[in-house]
TrEMBL record:
<protein>
    <submittedName>
        <fullName>Reelin domain-containing protein</fullName>
    </submittedName>
</protein>
<feature type="domain" description="Reelin">
    <location>
        <begin position="46"/>
        <end position="173"/>
    </location>
</feature>
<keyword id="KW-0732">Signal</keyword>
<dbReference type="Pfam" id="PF02014">
    <property type="entry name" value="Reeler"/>
</dbReference>
<dbReference type="InterPro" id="IPR002861">
    <property type="entry name" value="Reeler_dom"/>
</dbReference>
<feature type="signal peptide">
    <location>
        <begin position="1"/>
        <end position="21"/>
    </location>
</feature>
<dbReference type="InterPro" id="IPR042307">
    <property type="entry name" value="Reeler_sf"/>
</dbReference>
Length: 192
C-alpha cells in the first residue's frame, strides 16, 4: 500500500512538470514575469557563461543607437549564433549608472505583421489589465532572430533591456543584461 501511494505521488509530481512544460511551449507564464527566472525544478540551473546572442537597438533609419526619444518607434532585435526556442524580453527602468530599479518595466512593445512569423506574443498576465511591456515566444519553433518594435510615450530615464532566453528546456540564460541594451533618453542641446 505504501508503494502504491509513493507511485501515485510520483505520477502526480511528474504530470505537474509535464503540464508546466506543455504550457511553456506557448510562452513563459506570469509566475516569472517580475523575476525573469525560470522554474529550476523544470529547467535546472541557468548557464553562467556569456550567451551566444547579440542585442541590437535600432532607430527608424536602420542605425544602431544608444539613445531614444519619446513617441518614436525603435527596433529591438536579438540574433542568435545558435537556435533558441523560448524567450522573454522587457525594458526595465534603471538609475543613471544602469542599475535596475526593482522590476519596474518601461515603454511598450508594438505588435506588427512579423510577430506571427517570428513566434512572438505579449506576455499578458491579466485580461482586465493587459500590458504591452513584456514579450515572449508563442510557439516552440527554432528561432535565430526575434525582432520587435518598442516605444515610450515620455522620457522615462535610462532603461535596460533584460532578457531570459532558452535554446531548449535545460540550456538557458536568465536575466541577461546585454551591454548594448542600456539605452538613455536623448539629450537635447541647451539653448543657453
Amino acid at each position: 500500500m505504501v508503494q502504491f501511494i509513493y507511485f501515485i505521488l510520483y505520477i502526480l509530481f511528474i504530470s505537474n512538470d509535464l503540464i508546466e512544460g506543455l504550457l511553456e511551449s506557448k510562452g513563459y507564464g506570469c509566475e516569472m514575469r517580475q523575476s525573469m527566472r525560470l522554474n529550476k525544478r523544470l529547467h535546472g540551473f541557468p548557464q553562467k557563461d556569456q550567451p551566444p546572442f547579440i542585442f541590437q537597438f535600432i532607430n527608424a533609419n536602420g542605425k544602431h543607437v544608444k539613445t531614444y526619444e519619446s513617441n518614436r518607434n525603435y527596433t529591438v532585435r536579438v540574433v542568435g549564433f545558435t537556435r533558441f526556442k523560448g524567450f522573454v524580453i522587457q525594458a526595465r527602468a534603471t538609475d543613471k549608472e544602469g542599475s535596475m530599479i526593482g522590476s519596474l518595466t518601461e515603454g511598450m512593445f508594438i505588435e506588427d505583421h512579423l510577430w506571427n512569423k517570428l513566434g512572438i506574443q505579449y506576455q499578458s498576465c491579466s485580461k482586465s489589465y493587459p500590458t504591452m511591456d513584456s514579450v515572449t515566444h508563442s510557439n516552440e519553433k527554432q528561432k535565430y532572430i526575434v525582432e520587435v518594435k518598442w516605444r515610450t510615450e515620455r522620457d522615462v530615464g535610462p532603461i535596460q533591456f533584460l532578457i531570459t532566453i532558452a535554446t531548449n528546456d535545460k540550456i538557458y540564460w536568465e536575466r541577461w543584461v546585454p551591454i548594448s541594451g542600456l539605452i538613455n533618453p536623448k539629450q537635447y542641446p541647451s539653448n543657453h
